[in-house]
Amino acid sequence: MPDNDLSLIAHLMRRAGFGARRDELEAYSARKYDAVVEDVLYPERAPSLEEDILDRYNGWDKDKGVAASWMYRMVNSERHLEEKIALFWHHVFATGTNKSEHDPSHMGEIEMFRRIGLSDMRTLLIGLSKDPAMIYWLDNNENHKDEPNENYGREILELFSMGVGNYTETDIKMAGRAFTGWTFTQPIPLYPTGIYNTSFVYKEDDHDDSEKTFLGETGCFNGEDIVDIIVKQPATARFISRHMYNFFVADEPQVPAWGDKPPGDPEAIDALVGTYLDSDGDIRSMLRVLFNSDFFKEARFKRVKTPAELVAGVIKLVGTDRFPAPGFVRYAQAATLMGQQLFNPPTVEGWHTGQEWINGGTLNERVNFAVNQVGDASKPGLRDIVDRLGSTGGSVTPAELVDRCLDLVGPLDVSDDARDGLLEYANAVGELKLGTKAEREQSQLHVVRMIQLIVATREYQFA
Amino acid sequence: MARNSNGKDPVLVVVQLSGGNDFMNTVIPYTEPAYHDARPLVRINEEDVLPLNDTLGWHPSAEPMKELYDEGKVAIVQGVGYPDSNRSHFRGMDIMHTCEPVKVVSEGWVAKAIRDLDPKGENVLTGINVGQVLPRAMSMQGVPVTSVSKLESYGLMTGISEDQQRDQALEIFKKMYGQAIGSGVVMDYLAQTGADVLKGADILKRAPAMYSSDIEYADNPIAQSLRDVARMHLGGFGTRIFYAAHGGYDVHANENPDQPKLLSAMTGAINDFYRDLEAHDAADEVAIMVFTEFGRRIKDNGTGTDHGSGGGSFIIGKNVTGGLYSEYPPITPDKWLNGEDMQHTFDFRGVYATMLDQWLGLDPDPIVGGKYEQVHPFN
């Protein structure tokens, strides 16, 4: 397999983004793979979606909730990794509006992930510790000099950096005390007058400045000092590397099992850990190693798509919804029905991934959503597929129909079971004439049905 | 196990009120000065309450529930909660779903009951969720649960309208989710799940045509969900536990206009459902349990009430001896928990245990994680 083939680029774009249109894939695959990776790693090289332009579209879903508006970005941003890294950190640093009922702070948190998501672990953890959405989510606004609340001190260690088993209960208490006085400006009254913005504020008179011993070091530590100590721990390097592997490479056991289940590919984790330690926890450097590695290139279709990936990927495939318009709220709801309500992870642990995305109800939703979306031959993405099938001559044989549709949807590799099923349909249809416009209009129904069957496969559930 | 005169297996219908129903404004201590003092703006006037005895009365919008109560079919379990109540919805509901107040776990109590009712997973319809999101209560690795958001559209490829073509697509789907094992754990799991959905949908698609009723359910989500439950139950597919959720109870604001709509929709739906079962001679084998994740703060906040503790549950059925169970939490200010909340007087796990033990005939202890006091509302 050549290093820069279209299938590899499609894989990269599914992982570093939410998929890409065929013409984008073709443009990328004409270039060297590592050069494409470099562009992906610097999303700011691509144009941004201008918020003020979005604001000109009255009646679109921006006001119907933060999730609809994020779905718009996932489908339309050309800064692929900017949205994907924001989703990654939303998985790891999970917060939800169901507790705060304060959408602006959560929108602000995702905005922060877009801004600093590819920086380094220190910048990220400082940003997170000063983020009003996180402060409220883990009650750090209730963490006072005289009445410490250790919730954030615990979770920054357990969920956001080192993982259980690498620190003591005393370390948790010390971390908690170091973050006393880290709070936000009061956005109250939440009701009945509307929603006010909020921002980080440090209250020195509510900060416990006494001496603390944390992970073997002693000093009058403040929150920044705690983060400094956390980010240089090898346990942090390993924890973040495993998260990164699980999100970008292949499904892993879930976090609670990491204490006793070794990674599926220990060498890959070692490579990421090494990069973390050499680069002072630089996320972009780690992803550069990851995207250029053999373990990444060989991991095609080794992850169950998250619902957000599935929904955004299908919309990109059908090529609709390129501009702000009502409807994105439906896509956000579709992801919810598949088990991923953006901005509302089920618990502080975030979402469980991999096989846990699938149950009877969610599989039903996944299949039906995709089948319904691709069921209309007038959508630009479907028209493009029909035109491409017709562009090489007058007709396609049943086997060609299967193989070329699989190629145009993915390229997607499928099992024999799936291919036999698809061939059964193609054989029933027989040779398909696509030479003239009239023939294409006659035949498009069968192409659409073929695409519907392809997006219903087990294989299509994987990224 | 409760006696069903018709000899049919008992069926449990769980109704979840999501957001934290204001129990104090549902079953109202209308003669208590402390109630009126604590709720200057969000309260029901004494003359509007529908009294159920000298001290407690139903919210006027709960009239359809009062009707069943007056017939002796509604057990009110008062003061339901748990120690150190967690005011967050997500943890609160999590705890209600898993019976685990400390650890975060992923196995739900209803799923464990389904496993015990159908240990070999022989019927994919033993447990059915009606609604858009599968509750954690029904989630457990290896326990198949069918989740139906709308009965008419349940099933795969429902967007393909022509019957013949849809049948063809489903045949191909079955092949593509083929029996070949060994293609990977997740691929095998997907194959099994796909087969279960096909199997379940194949049976359930018969339900609408088998059903006819004179009851006209209201056009709101909870009424339509319970209508789906009625249609599936009356289809006789062997379902033992149905689950439906009704959202919107998080009345921080605008409680005065919003709560009546919620109570009217919910109690109307339950009344219609009960009458529907009666009309089909099927009320004997069904019991309904209504729960919520927490009650609300005793004092109002001006236009609504904030998250609190000490809620209430309802157990409804033909085999139920109606009345008040457990005790209403004391509401004079000196008894407020942490100076602002209701104390709980009955552990929620005892309500579940009541249904599991006395209604479904299961051993409740391993399911709810210990021994909890039960109420005894069954005849």
Task: Give an account of the 3D structure.
- The complex is a heterodimer of chains A (463) and B (379).
- Chain A is mostly helical.
- Chain A has helices at 6-16, 22-29, 33-41, 51-54, 66-76, 80-92, 97-100, 103-116, 121-129, 132-137, 151-158, 169-178, 223-231, 234-248, 266-278, 283-292, 294-297, 307-318, 328-337, 360-373, 380-390, 398-409, 416-429, 437-455, and strands at 182-184, 200-202, 212-214, 217-219, 395-396, 432-433.
- The model of chain A has no long low-confidence stretch (mean pLDDT 92).
- Chain B has 379 residues and is an alpha/beta fold.
- Chain B has eleven helices and twelve strands.
- Chain B has helices at 33-38, 63-70, 89-98, 109-117, 163-176, 185-204, 207-210, 221-234, 255-279, 348-359, 364-368, and strands at 11-17, 27-28, 50-51, 57-58, 74-81, 127-130, 146-148, 241-246, 286-292, 311-317, 323-325, 346-347.
- In chain B, a hairpin with a 5-residue loop joins strand 3 (50-51) and strand 4.
- In chain B, helix 2 (63-70) packs across helix 9 and helix 8 (221-234) runs parallel beside helix 9.
- The mean pLDDT of chain B is 91.
- The interface between A and B is large, with 53 and 56 residues.
Main sheet attributes: strand count, strand direction, barrel closure of chain B = 9 strands, mixed
The secondary structure category of chain B is alpha/beta
Intertermini distance of chain B: 10 Å
Q: Largest beta sheet of chain A: what is the strand line-up?
A: 1-2
Overall strand count of chain B = 12
Question: Portion of residues in helices of chain A?
Answer: 40-55%
Oligomeric form:
heterodimer
Rounded to the nearest angstrom, the radius of gyration of chain A is 24 Å
